Amino acid sequence: MKRAILVVILLAFAAWALLGPTDEPATPTTAQAPATATTASTSTPEPTTIPTKATVTPGQVMDADTSPVPKPSGPRPTITPEPLPSQAPTTVPMVTITPNPTPTQLPALPALDDPQTVALAFAQRYFTLDTSVDNSPAAGRARAAAVATPRLAAQLVQAPVNGRSGGDWLALLEHQGWTEAQPTVVTLGSAPDDTGTTVVRAVRVDLRSRGTDSWFDRRTPLITVELDRVDQEWRVDAYQVLEG
C-alpha cells in the first residue's frame, strides 16, 4: 500500500516539474517576432513607379541619363579652306639652241648646188660633237640646220634630246670626248626617182667616239634625207635616223 502511494506521489511531482504551476503567467520567448515586424509583413506594399522611356523629338539630343538636351540654335560656323599655293605651269617653254663654235674636225660648209654633197654635209654635222666646245648633244643638230630648209631648221634647233642621243652624250662627257663622223652615200633599193625639185639620199655614217683617256666606241648609223630645191639651192627638208 505504501509503495503505491509513493508511486503516485512521484508521478505527480514529475508532472508538476514538466508543466509548471498553472497560475504563473506565460513568458514570451525570444523566438517570437515583435509585433511591429508582424504588422510590416502583413501591410500592403506601395506600388513601384517604373520610369518610362523618354520620347526623343526631332532637334533633340539624348544624354547618358536619358534627359533631352536641346540642340544649339543658330547657324553653323562656316569653315573657309585656305587657298592652295599657285602651281608652276605644266608647259615647258621651247629653248632655241645657238650653235657652238665648229669643232676642228668638221669641214667648212660646201656649196649647195649638189644634193648629194648637201646630204653628206647634213649627216656629218648632225653626228659630230665635241665636249670641249659643245654644251649639249643638240649642238650637232643646230649645226646641221645650216643646210636645212627654214621649216626643218626651226625644228632642229628646238627638238628635245632623248633616247640614244642622250646616252651617247653622257658617255662623251664622262670621257671628255668627241666624235668623228665619216659619211658615205649608199643605194636604197626602194628609193624614189629624182625630180628637178626633190631627191632622196641614204647616208651611212662611220661614227667613231674617242676620249682623252683613250676611250673608244664605234657604230654605223644610217640616215635618210629628203632634199628640196629652194632658190637654186638644195636643202634638207626631212630626215630619219636608223641606228646601226
Question: Topology of this protein?
Answer:
Elements: H1 2-19, H2 35-42, E1 60-62, E2 68-70, H3 115-127, H4 139-144, H5 150-156, H6 164-175, E3 178-186, E4 198-210, E5 216-219, E6 222-230, E7 233-242
Antiparallel strand pairs: 1-2, 3-4, 4-5, 4-6, 6-7
Description:
- β4 and β5 (216-219) form a beta hairpin.
- This protein has 6 helices and 7 strands, in the order ααββααααβββββ.
- It has a domain at 115-242: VirB8 protein (Nuclear Transport Factor 2, Chain: A, Roll).
- The longest helix is centred in the N-terminal third of the chain and has 18 residues, at 2-19.
- Helix content is 26%, strand content 21%.
- It has helices at residues 2-19, 35-42, 115-127, 139-144, 150-156, 164-175, and strands at 60-62, 68-70, 178-186, 198-210, 216-219, 222-230, 233-242.
- Strands 3, 4, 5, 6 and 7 form a 5-stranded antiparallel β-sheet that branches. The protein has a two-stranded antiparallel sheet with strand order 1-2.
- With 244 residues, the protein is an alpha+beta fold.
Could you write a compact summary of the structure shown?
This protein is an alpha+beta fold and 244 residues long.
